[in-house]
Amino acid sequence: MGQAFAFVATCPTCGHAQLQNAFARPDLERLLNGGYPIEAYCTDCDEFWTVSIQKRVEIVEAVAITLAPRFAASGNLTDS
Ligand SMILES: [Zn+2]
Q1: Would you write out the chain's pLDDT as a tens digit for each of its 80 residues?
Q2: Is 39 inside any structural domain?
Q3: 75 C-alpha vs ligand 1 centroid, how far in Å?
Q4: Ligand 1 mean position to 17 CA, how many Å?
Q5: Ligand 1 centre from 52 Cα, in Å?
Q6: Spatial distance between the Cα atoms of 61 and 24, rounded to a whole number of angstroms
Q7: What's the chain look like in SS3?
Q8: How many CB atoms lie within 10 A of CB 11?
Q9: How many domains does the chain have?
Q10: What angle do CA 14, 20, 50 make, to 5 degrees?
C-alpha cells in the first residue's frame, strides 16, 4: 500500500495527540499539492477533522525532508 507517512495531530474535541498513520505519502503529496484539506482521525472520539494551516505547513516540511534522500538516491537529479 505504498509508503505510509505518519504524523501527529491534536484532536480539537478531546485535545489528545493522535498518531495519523493511514496516509500513504503519495496521497498526502496529492492533497498538499492540490490544496485539498487533510483529514485527521481521532480513535478516542471516532471523528475526523481537518488539520490546521499550521499543522499543514509542518506536514509539508516533513514530507519534503523525508522525500529528499529518495530523490538523491534515485539518480534522476541532473544538477550533480
Ligand atoms: Zn478526540
Answers
A1: 467 889 999 999 999 999 999 999 889 999 999 999 999 999 999 999 999 999 999 999 988 877 666 555 555 555 54
A2: yes
A3: 43
A4: 8
A5: 15
A6: 16
A7: CCCECCEEEECCCCCCEEEECCCEHHHHHHHHHHCCCCEEEECCCCEEEECCHHHHHHHHHHHHHHHHHHHHHHCCCCCC
A8: 18
A9: 1
A10: 65
Structural domain includes residue 36: yes
Contact (CB, 8 A) for 9 and 51: yes
**Predicted pLDDT of residue 72:** 52
The answer to whether residue 79 sits within a structural domain is no
Give residue 27's domain range.
Answer: 7-74
Separation CA 29–CA 8 (nearest Å): 17
